[in-house]
Design goal:
By secondary structure, this protein is an all-alpha fold. The chain is built from 15 helices and no strands. About 80% of the residues lie in helices and about 0% in strands.
């Protein structure tokens, strides 16, 4: 399917906007570097201390914001397409809450190191997805049922999380609370590489599945008539979507509303009939980088967790979305 000129224009504007934001973000901080100085470092014309600050200290955070934002955007597009509902996002369905449960268990049992917490979050997210899918399965998985079951499982896990926080040690509870905010602060090259590898593997799997998602959105009968095995294809997309959100959550903690908002914002800007993977990825990357820049500057020199910004902005978006859905349901 060829992209329309409107889609190409929107993606180009978002891409250029993300590039401008990245250059600006690489220069801000306690040691400021001018945009021209950042460009000189990136093009290899500046080997002073600016190079150390830009490439060693700030570049990993920028790249992680772009990669994690893109992963959340694609994951949101997958689940919204599978459920055929704009509320069918992994953070609404409860996968991020499950990841937090896994992180809490890892922090309580194994300490609070970055990798044990990340591993716990990924395992928690995958187990939660398996439980939600199993409970929602009844001669297939209907989108609305998956959302309702996910919300219910998420509510139960929220109670479990509160119980775990009460039981673990004070320092562990503080670590868990910080992680829960969702933050890119302090992330380095060592945290970037595993995320890149996992996201790349998920994207290769997504390409291998093929463009079956638009066909699934037509309904199981139509998909079967067109030679697609609906349940097999649905499970494959489900697994890829869960891996993407689990990797993002494991790296930076739960970052709410990016997966929910990015696909719908991209669809409205491009005028496409359904959510698109590429447009959702670009929009997700732009949104998270923009939110992280706000988190760094709004109360400078202190830095907010980026999750606090996405929750504030996303909450307004969710209210607007619910109002629109309610009016359409009249």
């Amino acid at each position: 399917m060829r992209a329309s000129w409107r889609t190409i224009t929107v993606l180009s504007v978002l891409g250029v906007g993300a590039l401008v934001l990245a250059v600006f973000a690489l220069g801000v901080g306690e040691y400021p570097v001018s945009p021209a100085g950042v460009v000189e470092v990136l093009t290899g014309q500046n080997h002073s201390f600016d190079e150390v600050v830009v490439l060693d200290y700030r570049m990993p955070r920028i790249l992680l914001a772009l990669v994690i934002g893109a992963a959340l955007g694609i994951s949101g597009a997958i689940f919204q397409a599978l459920t055929r509902n704009p509320l069918g996002s992994p953070d609404v369905i409860g996968f991020e809450i499950g990841a937090y449960t896994g992180a809490l268990v890892a922090i309580g049992m194994l300490g609070g190191s970055y990798y044990t917490t990340a591993a716990g979050a990924m395992i928690g997210g995958l187990i939660t997805a398996a439980v939600v899918y199993s409970l929602a399965y009844k001669n297939g998985v209907a989108g609305f049922r998956l959302i309702v079951v996910g919300i219910a499982v998420g509510a139960v896990l929220s109670s479990v999380n509160q119980w775990i926080i009460i039981k673990i040690k004070l320092q562990q509870a503080i670590t868990a609370s910080i992680w829960q905010q969702g933050s890119l602060n302090g992330l380095e090259w060592g945290q970037l590489y595993p995320v890149l590898v996992c996201v790349a593997i998920a994207l290769v799997a997504l390409v291998a599945i093929g463009p079956q998602l638009p066909i699934l959105q037509m309904g199981d009968d139509a998909a079967g008539a067109l030679g697609v095995r609906p349940e097999r294809a649905r499970i494959a997309y489900f697994v890829v979507g869960v891996i993407l959100v689990a990797v993002a959550t494991a790296a930076a903690g739960p970052i709410a509303f990016v997966a929910l908002a990015a696909p719908q914002l991209a669809r409205r800007l491009t005028g496409a009939p359904g959510v698109g993977m590429v447009s959702s990825a670009v929009m997700g990357a732009f949104l998270l980088l923009f939110s992280d820049l706000i988190a760094q500057k709004i109360v400078a020199p202190a830095q907010l967790p980026v999750g606090a910004v996405t929750v504030s902005v996303g909450g307004l978006y969710l209210i607007w979305l619910l109002v629109v859905q309610a009016r359409r349901g009249r």
